[in-house]
Amino acid sequence: MAEPFSVSISVRGYETDSQGHLNQAVYLQYAEHARWSVLRAAGIEQADLLAKGVGPVALENTIRYYSELRAGDEVEVTCAFIWGERKTFRIEQLIRKADGTRAAELHSIGGLLDLGERQMVADPREYFRALADDPAVIGL
C-alpha cells in the first residue's frame, strides 16, 4: 500500500503553551493544513468548491497524543481520505517527528455542505471527483 499524502511543518515557538509543548489547538490547524494541501495536490482549490456552492465541514475530530512536540521540531502530517457510500467520509491523519516518532493521531468525520441549502450533499465523492485533476491523490 502506498504511503498517504503528507506535508512537512516546522513547529513555531508562538504555537507552544506555557510548558513549551505544542498547543493542543494547533494540532487541529496542522491537520487542516494537510487536508487543504492534499486537496490542492489533487487539483482542487477552495475557490473551486465555493464556485460549485459547496464547502467541506468537520463533523467530528478526535486527537490522540503520543509524544510532545516543541518549538523547532520538524513534523510530517499525513492525510488519507476514506470514502463511504453516504454523506460523510473519514480522514485519518498522523503527525510524526522527523525521526519517525508518532506524536499524534487524528481521526475525523467530514462532509460537504451545500452552502445554499445548508444541507449535506448526498454524495461528496461525486463533487470531489468532478473537480479533481488527479482524484487518486484523495483516494477516488
TrEMBL record:
InterPro entries: 4-hydroxybenzoyl-CoA_TE, HotDog_dom_sf. Gene3D superfamilies: Hotdog Thioesterase. It comes from the Bacteria. The keyword Hydrolase applies. SUPFAM superfamilies: Thioesterase/thiol ester dehydrase-isomerase. It is an enzyme of class 3 (hydrolase). Its EC number is 3.1.2.-. GO terms for molecular function: hydrolase activity. The keyword Manganese does not apply. Keywords: Hydrolase. PANTHER family: 4-HYDROXYBENZOYL-COA THIOESTERASE FAMILY MEMBER, LONG-CHAIN ACYL-COA THIOESTERASE FADM. This is Acyl-CoA thioesterase. It comes from Streptomyces longisporoflavus.
